Amino acid sequence: MKIYHYTNLESLALILKNKTIRFNRLDKVDDLEEGNVESLGVKFCKYVFASCWTESEEESIPLWKMYGGDFGGVRISMEKEMFKEYIVSNLNFENLKTQGSILSIIPPQDYTKPDFFIYPFWGYANSMFYRKITYVDDINKYIKDAIQITKYDNGKNKATIKMGSFGSYKNKRWKFQDESRFVLYILPLNPLIESQNPDMPTNIINCLLQNKSLLFSHYDMHLKDEIINTMEITLSPSVTDAQRVIIEALRDKYIPQAKIIESSLGKVIRLK
Question: What global pTM score does this model have?
Fold first, then answer.
């Protein structure tokens, strides 16, 4: 299934050059309400990274206007199962050795970083990684109880976190986006490295309650060569001759197999 992403010329250049798609932290995107929702005082969306798309083949005037039209933007289209997969096997930590292999969308080197952990690490056969947005009247209604913490007399804590609630809901005012998105949850410590530490669950909870910050605000996912080579690039309805030359030059240099398409709205609207 093809999905569609509206973006500007600068982002297109990085996608083509690096063959990556950028996931941005939800507390840094344009929907301030979604990015700042809380549960138990935890602003969990600072740990939620998303890449936003739509399954609608019909071009959207609002999406052109918001995400690229005025600046010579584009709409790219690729198959949904676009991200590179890796065989991860026999991880070796100081206090833990694993045996066996898994097929992962996260590269092996990112399993061993001490200051973050990415979830989910498997691919498309689950709703944690890819989902359609549900539009609601009140986001907080669906988020406020997503984190539950039980405190014990011995000072240890236990948490239940419905991670899938974060990054799944937006206010109905955004319904025009008809959004689908890929989502990664990136925690500010690595439970694999601390797996032998009996205080590990409590340490995770304390990190969240303290709203511990990550050291980065985006994460780049690599694309499969066979998928990126089938990319379709739709030009903005208001594309200029100069912008067309730049886009064609980028395509020819980095992904000559990609197809450039004229907008179906080019002769009926003026975005500028």
Answer: 0.91
